[in-house]
Input
Amino acid sequence: MNTPVTTAADTSVKPLRLLFTLALLGYVALHLGFQFLRWILPAENTTLISRSQSSGFLDLFLMALPLLAVLIATHLSPQLPGSKIFALVALIEYAAAVVLGGVTFLIGLGGLGWVDTFPETIDALGHVVLTIARLGLVALAGYAVLRVFLALGGRVTLPSALNPPA
Output
């Protein structure tokens, strides 16, 4: 009679850490890219202001993914070899989200000038307050990734074979 082989839960998932890190960072990059195209390219019956108000650059669920990817790469032992690059990619994603989210927020404010009823006022106020809160949360997650990146050395250097000759 054969006894079943049992492994600890952490050892069964550790080989997938690199795949999860790449998938999470890649998905957010794709999301930001497609949201940018959706925001820039005009669609029927939309304006830049309406597209700015509904842009998805500050989607909190998606903005948690780069932080999760960096934590998977750096805080589980052993640390993944490309952790510094993963943190840098997450920083770039957060910077793009904050900049594009801020720009679309400011452009979208132009559509809040025609508020006639009390429910529209509540909707406009909610839009402003919650967007500022989302900007803050995304910036906070970006700051956490920046701290991890700086703790990893804070610089990404090219291998000596790729450095240009002096």
Q: What stands out?
A: Helices lie at 9-13, 17-40, 48-53, 60-75, 83-108, 118-151. Residues 96 and 139 are 11 Å apart (CA to CA).
